[in-house]
Design a protein that fits this description.
The protein contains 21 helices and 42 strands. With 839 residues, it is α+β, with helices and mostly antiparallel strands.
Length: 839
Amino acid sequence: MHNRKWLLIVFVTALTFSSFVPGVSAMKGEKGPIKGNLVIVGGALGSSNSDVYKEFIHLAGGEDDARIGIIPAASSSLKSSKQFKEDMITYGLNPSDVEILELSNHDFKDTETNERKWKSNAQKNKVANQIKQLTGIWFVGGDQLKITDTLLKANGKNTKALDAIWDIYQDGAVLGGTSAGAAIMSDVMITGGDSLGGFNQSFIYEDISNPDEESAPVFIEQGLGFFQWGIVDQHFNERSRLGRLTATALKYEDQGNYAYGIDEDTAMVVSNEKQTIEVIGRSTVTVLDVSHAAVDGESIRGIDLSYLATGDQVNAQDKSFRIDEARNLETTGYEYFNFEPLPATGVLTSYGTLPNYLSYSLVDNAAADEVESYLYDSTGEGYELTFNQTADTKGYWGYKDGQKDSYSIAHVTMNATPINVQFKENGGLFEEHEPSQFTMPDYSFNPDTKGMLIMAGGALGSSNAEVYEAFIERAGESGKYGIIPAASSSLKSSHQFREDLISYGVGSEKIEILPLSNHDFKNTKEDESLWLENKNDDRLAEEVKSYDAIWFVGGDQTDITDALLNEDGSQSKVLESLWKIYEKGAVLGGTSAGAAIMSDVMIAGGGSFDTLSKGFTKTYDSMSQQEGGPAYLEKGLGFFPYGIVDQHFDNKARIGRLIATDAAHGETNEYSYGIDEDTALILDNKEKSLQVVGRAGVSVIDVNTQEESAVWKGDEDIRLSWLTSGDQLNLDTKKFSISDHKVSTTDYEYFDYEAAPHSGVLTPHAELNKYLSYALLDNVRETQVKSYSFNKGKGFELTFREGEDTEGFWGYKDGNKDDYSYLNVYLDIQPVEVSIQNR
């Protein structure tokens, strides 16, 4: 949910601790044994997150016995409370068993009643008795200080309402909350601040706001103390709050050596009787151990980081972890990747959030024992962050929600060293940049083609109904479906997609895995490399003509083109059949590699930083070039005639390589398209339109003003747009249509603060499109923001700025999650020399 408090805190030098004494005011006398449980959510809880809702209801007594009270105090309106009540009813509760409690210290903007009068209710026996009849309490998100001000007296003692909450909690009730409703759970309540302020070891104890500073000290207040085993923080990786939680855990070590940072749409389920903490939901919980850490001036050493995913548990008594059996493969000694990772320095670095970066670049990468990132303000003052594997480091991997990677990480060590970073423009840095030698394919596209394309950016979740239903709707449940497995190293993903189609209503007899491959699959008796000859098999080519839908699974896109193109680059008989059914109206779809093959120019490898600095290569190493290196291009299949497509876009930070490829080979007046994971771009050839569906977005890039050489000598005026579910583009008129549930942010910006540069994995809203949405488009203070990406003293300054035609859009989705789109953000790229000095 929107909340200014996390941004608008003035920077104050470190203050001595005086007025705040954790663990005193919120307690109900001496705590006896607590039978109740906690469900603590990191914010942005989706209404579709059934695991969290069902667990809360279960712990409250189940659908028949649960009686839930909602405390709306944190929010500026009753909307989120009403939404949570609707969600409870959706998941099986009777409306009469869910009530919004009249507890608030302020008026709500969406009612005629003056709810400020509700503050006195916290001392009324009627409200206390009402609470005592409940089996569950839920605190909605917003401003955590409004909750504590409502439930604590001016002298810091409990109100009658808070005493009643403690009574039912000790007797077995479940308490839950999201965002601000999570922040109040520990004795030490983090109310504001950011990671840079935390590493600066700066604290404040009163609410003083100043939006002019790029960093904010950690603002500490008294929480309600329901969580017994440490300090809690929320919106954790989305807002990159590791630094502030680190500083707080170091300052208040008496609260327990572990501190917990909860991601959005994710919950910690706390059992006081079992003394366990379990993770459920869609992301991770960071477990921070400062017991062996040391502070030396401005340097911090020996912070122990662990990242737990759904199903993982912490034993609160002995601090041990139990990793869920879904991640049953240890990465240690069995690392999947083997590449030299770039330091995480900005929006050109793959895996922008810290858990992702550490998973792929460190613990599941045989080539790295240490990785680094940076965090600094616009003056260059900040910190170098190093993350090390030790003898205690363990990584665990498995699949979740279909074919998505799921990692847990135990015991990575973090150090923070104060540094100063300076940048100097130098347009001659990358003279070794190699231009593309790729020869554009000579394709002709039939303008009367009636078929459709569904291009998914990878990591497609089996639960992503929007994408699956779009594919099935266009093919028909009674249609015939073919799956082409060629890209994958095994048949597992093809079988998984087949099971997914069946789960969405397609008859099993309607789905076939087609024998097309150029290599053998692991874990089968058959030698599938012999299938290479099938691409010109008359019988198979004729059979393909009977299909209504074809799906290409993910993997290595060069394996798909090799399995369907002849050695001279001409179409095989099977590919000719695919074209015939596509032209007549069939739907073709694919994920990851299955999306990359769709355009004329197929990006087969390379990273953004390396492509901008080194250019293009004519050689291909599938492992290393999926994660970095100069761009490698091959001939695609050309089903998408309107530009170049790239995938895994935001997660693998591929904006640089797509810009460079489009500048070299894009057609005039065409855009290029970067599709995020778990998201699809749908082409309707008859309507000449594109539509976005799924959980993230599609970047639309316009480099029509650029020449290829400009990409590495200094680019200007590249235009970026970002579309999310429901947004559309008319390919004839080039007009965008934004889903009508969003409103324009232009002249109605929600935030007002000085935004620090995007400097690495601890930058708030680490993914580029989220960073631009929060820091630029919905921030009245900024008309441009910067990011720096560099390695070994050379790099790029990226300036993202608003123009006259720039516009941002905001709405809610899936409950109370922010949903942004934007049009025409301008990007300038300038090569820079980089100098780093210790402070």
